[in-house]
Amino acid sequence: MAEIFTPWKMKDLTIPNRLVRSATWEGLAEADGTPTHDLINALGDLAEGGVGLIITGYAFILPEGRGLPKQTGVHIDAMVGPLTRISDAVHKAGGLVAMQIVHAGGQTKAEWIGGQPMGPSAMVNPAFKEEVGELSLMHIEDIIDAFAMAAARVKAAGFDAVQLHGAHGYLINQFLSPLTNRREDDYGGNPANRARFAYDVLSATRQAVGPRYPVFIKLNSADYVEGGLALEEGLAVAQGLSQRGIDGIEVSGGTPAAGKLSASRVVKEASDEGYFLTNAVAIKKVVSCPVICVGGWRSRSEVEKALDQVDAVALSRPFIRQPDLANRWKAGEEKAACISCNQCFKVGMKQGLGCGQELKKQEKEQG
Ligand SMILES: Cc1cc2nc3c(=O)[nH]c(=O)nc-3n(C[C@H](O)[C@H](O)[C@H](O)COP(=O)(O)O)c2cc1C
Prior knowledge:
Layout: E1 8-10, E2 13-15, E3 19-21, H1 37-48, E4 53-55, E5 59-60, H2 80-92, E6 97-102, H3 110-113, E7 118-119, E8 123-124, E9 131-134, H4 137-156, E10 161-166, H5 171-176, H6 191-209, E11 215-220, H7 231-243, E12 249-252, H8 277-286, E13 291-294, H9 300-306, E14 312-315, H10 317-321, H11 325-330, H12 356-365
Helix pairs in contact: 1-2, 4-6, 6-7, 7-8
The structure holds flavin mononucleotide.
């Protein structure tokens, strides 16, 4: 059985244990995307809690690519200074931190971006029900450049790695999905063309950060939406990314349109845990980079079993309730306290992240 608390490598980066904090939107940035003290402190707390690698919540690469309000921005050079405070805080606490970068494409709201959401094809977005416009080829090129420039800022801000968001229905995933990509030019019409945008983003990002900087991706293995990305195509994309030099793949799945089969599913018992493990193991067989499996990990023993088949596991909701979960597992605890109720916000989404169960407890204690 593989050990959770043994190091592994992503390119030259040695990560001290197999537990990764999966990207989690914190809702703790100013309206212009600047990280607040609360965000810096929350990420510092996670580092103190012993997690091997922290991935920040998704940061937008262009204002038109925002996914939610109060999201962190990495869209302008002026963000490098404020973002450096995150990497400093995490490093001071002995941790490692990657930044996840995203363009939401058509999966956002006009009111949040101040204009019409744009995606691979004109349609009503299956999850957000907004009218989406079709990106021109020139606009696609600009977005690819914006990914590269954002990645260069992540590196300049002292982060240990950059993660591309290629999952959960956002722009890279929209290009991969036959449901949202109905283009007939070089970016659509067949699986190889649908994957071109992801490959172009990787190649531009690599150019921007150089050969030794870790660039990895959170990738949908399948969308679980009728007509969306199927596992067979997801495997081919993972293989294509590996052949083009991606340094790691975090395997996820589902989109907000997938209902119960979304990325953040209900987990009640041990058999519900690791719901993308089968897909991650299939991907592991066709790639040469490390594979991280996210989705529903709640018990130390289930994670230990999974580590026979994948390199690391990533968790999101359990770290909202217990930022020190890694240290707890190291000390011998078995179960995370998270019950997957998906009430991970303080007061609606406006106040940012916070465990609903912990808040209920505090309210009771205060009478
Ligand atoms: C409040 C919240 C915010 C999330 N934000 C992101 C995000 O910014 N980027 C991302 O890739 N996934 C995001 N996710 C999905 C999680 O990273 C993860 O893939 C999913 O919740 C399954 O893992 P878990 O069972 O450990 O929570 C978010 C999930 C939650 C609950």
